[in-house]
Amino acid sequence: MPESLNHTQDPSTLARLTEIADRAKSLRLSDNTRRAYQGDWDRFEEFCTENHLEPVPADPNTVRAYVAHMSTQIDHDGHWRYKASSISRAIAAINAVHRALGYPRASNEDVNDTINGVRRARKEQIDRKHPLLLTEIRHMIARMDHHLWPTGMAAARDTAVILLGFGSAARRSEVGALKLRNMTVNEDGLIITISQSKSDQEGAGATLAIPRGNSELTCAVCAWLHWNRLRHLTTRPERMMALFQRGHSPHWKHICFDEPDVKPENPDAPAFVSVNRAGGLGEAHLSGNALNMIVKRRVNDLGLNPDKYGFHSLRSGFVTQARRNGADTRAVRRQTRHKSDDMVNAYDRDFAPLIGNAVTELGM
């Protein structure tokens, strides 16, 4: 058996492997999370320096004092600089640094209670976007100009985005990152491979399935096939003819049983791209903000307040609709990939208050 590696045997090899290990460890967190944590940690270090406190390992009382400090900061407009959610993230960053350095968590129950106390004192509510339910999504899709040029191009993309977001309960970062290779149609329906997500920092991935819809209007498989076909047509007349053949939404027929999925020449191309006013297509992935704006524009067309909705309304809509239709929390979590029932129950409290509520048994 080979001898174990140590400092005396090959320092250069050890240094190289240590560098590789450090780089792999740094990839445990997404780029966005790492950048946010870095800013949070820098501010905590500054606080500790100014107050002659040790940042590592930090005493829980130091962290609790930092929570109190953040809770008193005011911006130029006279508003709280840090919401309770931002304070919670800062504490998560402090704990992450301690974990990386081999120290115990810097926070404890007193720290958590202090954050909750800040939230209660300010009467801060968790900002949950209103869910979009199936009826609203049906109306949203029916209002789009699917058979017209060039608006039909954006309508096809937005329909696919909305139905995929609703049926998969995926996060907007996950949908924005999808490539053509991540999309497959088979006998089960539309199969979506998520490579990496916010809650899957190790990058194990996930496979989500959306079955063929009962209604042609809300069939995610049909919507994907139509959009993918348009994406691969290269001329304006071809795209115009495809829109004309698809027709107006009330007269749609299922195409998911007989139309083959287009095999991409470039499997790494984005699944969803921008559509300009002339019907032309971009080449880059849609950002999370772009996906958010798609939902807001379509919600606004329904006469709803777009400030209350966003792409997350599709994910929360999945949970709410599924629960109202009788799905248990385990079945919901299988698609949403929530780690516990707590988040599902939170949606119940906010948007489906009669689920599991004894008031329905009163016979009133």
Question: Key features?
Answer:
50% helix, 4% strand, 3 strands, mainly alpha, three-stranded antiparallel beta sheet, 14 helices, 364 residues, disordered N terminus
Secondary structure blueprint with pairings:
Layout: H1 11-26, H2 31-50, H3 60-71, H4 84-100, H5 109-122, H6 134-142, H7 151-168, H8 172-176, E1 183-186, E2 189-194, E3 206-210, H9 220-232, H10 236-246, H11 288-301, H12 312-324, H13 329-336, H14 341-351
Antiparallel strand pairs: 1-2, 2-3
Helix pairs in contact: 2-4, 3-4, 3-5, 7-9, 7-12, 12-14
Explained architecture:
- With 364 residues, this protein is mostly helical.
- The protein is 50% helix and 4% strand.
- The chain has helices at residues 11-26, 31-50, 60-71, 84-100, 109-122, 134-142, 151-168, 172-176, 220-232, 236-246, 288-301, 312-324, 329-336, 341-351, and strands at 183-186, 189-194, 206-210.
- A three-stranded antiparallel β-sheet has the order 1-2-3, with helices on one face.
- A hairpin with a 2-residue loop joins strand 1 (183-186) and strand 2 (189-194).
- Helix 2 crosses helix 4, helix 3 (60-71) runs parallel beside helix 5 (109-122) and helix 12 packs across helix 14.
- The radius of gyration is 25 Å and the shape is globular.
- It starts with 10 loop residues before the first helix and ends in a 13-residue tail after the last helix.
- Residues 1-9 have low confidence and may be disordered.
